[in-house]
Amino acid sequence: SPSPTTRTMTPEVDNLFHAFANHRGTLDSRAFAKVCKICDFVDGLLTSVDTELLFARVLRRRGQRHMRLLDFREAFGLVGQRRGLSPAALRAACAFAAAAAGPPAA
Q: What stretch of H or E contains 24?
């Protein structure tokens, strides 16, 4: 079940996911890392290697290479925990990054 943090930030996280998802509605590890960078989450607290490890951690159960929306919610909750961000701070970062990405590709 989703963490309390993930439940409270779902609309913003969903919008961010859809802004970066490919035509199949998934993200690969490179796209996930890009989202984290655009949100300014990659720094001394969360490195690019950490984003790859979080991506793999979320998908380890299925051995997949692409995240679906529910996987992305879980991964973003872990990013927020890792950085010590409040749900409000995560929502703001997601909203900013989704707006910067523009409308989702059709």
A: none
